[in-house]
Amino acid sequence: MSTITNPNTYVSNANKINSMRSALSQAIVLLSLVVTLIVFWCLKLTGITLAGEAFCGMNEHIHGEGCPTGSLVCMLEETEGHVHDESCILRELLCELDEALPHVHNDDCLEYALICPEEEIEPHFHDDSCHALELVCTEEESEDHTHTDACYMPGDDLLCTREETEGHLHTDECFVLVEDSFVCGKEETEGHRHTDECYYIGIGFGCGLTEEEGHVHTEDCLTDETELGCGLDCVPEHFHTDACYQALEACPLEEHIHTEDCYSNLDADIETMADWEADLPDLSEIPSTGMAVAAVANSQLGYTESTLNFEVDPDGIRHGITRYGQWYGNPYGDWSAMFASFCLYYSGVEDLPANAGAESMRLEWEEEEFYQPADGTLPEVGVAFGVGLPLREGGEVEERGVQVDRRDILRVEGGVADAAEA
Fold this sequence. Notes:
By secondary structure, the chain is α+β, with helices and mostly antiparallel strands. It is 20% helix and 17% strand. The protein has 6 helices and 14 strands.
């Protein structure tokens, strides 16, 4: 049994489903955006990516089995060496005879003369090869049949021009031995082999021993009279062993693993006085010192500390180089107070002491009677002010800034999120 659904109910359900899908899609997009921002921020903090370039000038190296442990100090070359033996003694051939094998005539050396009056003729009797072939195949050649050897048989027509004969081949009876005649061309002889008697053998080793007796000659066996013919120097065998190497106390390579400091480019974002003074405003027509201070501070809006040239403190926090630190002489220091000092200096205020720290600046100003508490009142335009920030150990530290516009209570602070911001 089927039911009829109310159209309004159907539309309402569809709208609810679409709303849920839309909300889910928005949540997914928002979550993706949050994840992207977190990943970007982590990469910004570490500054080390897969394509990062280390500027420390060192190669990464961890000591292990591949590290050299010794250096070769042996001055000898590796060689199989040469030790003189009996074969090295000088031998000079004096015999004038040529070496020859002994020779005694045998049947192969005898000469025989042919006495048979008949010529040698090979026997011949006609066979199938002597007759012309006749076609015996009853089929005609066509695309389906081509004559082969099986289609032919020897016929009666004789092609051979030779006559049939029993022939004649010479046998031993056709020859007679020729006396005192030999076909080898050699004379019978006992031959000759060189022996020690054919050589002049030089004076040997002075030790009086032979190697056949289980003795191996050394250089000590030689005398001034020993006559050698090998042409080689007596050199002992040598192959490098552990004794040929000098042990190293340590691997000559310095162990090094890249840290975040290695990725700081100390040549990046270096500024000179001419660089930062090029961004300063023209103060010649500004009527008051306070407004001049505000103008200088306002000209620094948007400046950020370097992300390429930085130092990392023991807590792992980066401190990028800034123009204010370079101006003051503390390139990587916290620069809120140096920013305020920079603005005061370039606006022509010379009687206020410059300082790199917010608290030390307050103490110096207080000592010089230039500091007074706000007491809930707004500072005048161009006045350097401090914003109290709580410390974990108690007390306060002040971030320094400059009041720019009293009407809108606008201030420019340095070192806020690593930038000069309003």
